Amino acid sequence: MWQHLAQDPINKGDAACINQSAAWQYMGSTQDHHYFKHQQHPFTHKPEYRYIERHCAGVKWHHIMQ
């Protein structure tokens, strides 16, 4: 799941995206998705949230915009 997070274009291959001691945090999973949040993403300078499909779900990326 961390590899999939790194592949999101906003992360440019980096699964951590450390910015002022903030990094992507794993928040949990549902049957279909893994949920991540970043308090202040280094490229957008704002909070970011991502749902990443679980391998068995068979759906594409879903992004939550604030």
Commentary on this structure:
This protein has one helix spanning 2-7, and strands spanning 25-29, 33-38, 48-53, 62-64. With 66 residues, the protein is mostly beta strands. It has a domain at 2-38 and 49-57. A four-stranded antiparallel sheet has the order 1-2-3-4, with no helix packed on it. β1 (25-29) and β2 (33-38) form a beta hairpin. It is globular and about 30 Å long. The two termini are 22 Å apart. The mean pLDDT is 87.
Class by helix and strand content? mainly beta
Number of strands: 4
Largest beta-sheet details:
4 strands, antiparallel
> What is the gyration radius calculated from CA atoms?
11 Å
Question: Averaged pLDDT, please?
Answer: 87
Shape: globular
Strand content: 25-35%
**Poorly predicted sequence stretches spanning 5 or more consecutive residues:** none
User: What spatial order of strands do you see in the largest sheet?
Assistant: 1-2-3-4
Treating each run of at least 4 consecutive H or I residues as one helix, how many helices? 1
Ends distance: 22 Å
Brief characterization of the structure:
The protein is mostly beta strands and 66 residues long. It has one helix at 2-7, and strands at 25-29, 33-38, 48-53, 62-64.
Which structural traits does this protein have?
single chain; mainly beta; four-stranded antiparallel sheet; 1 helix; 66 residues
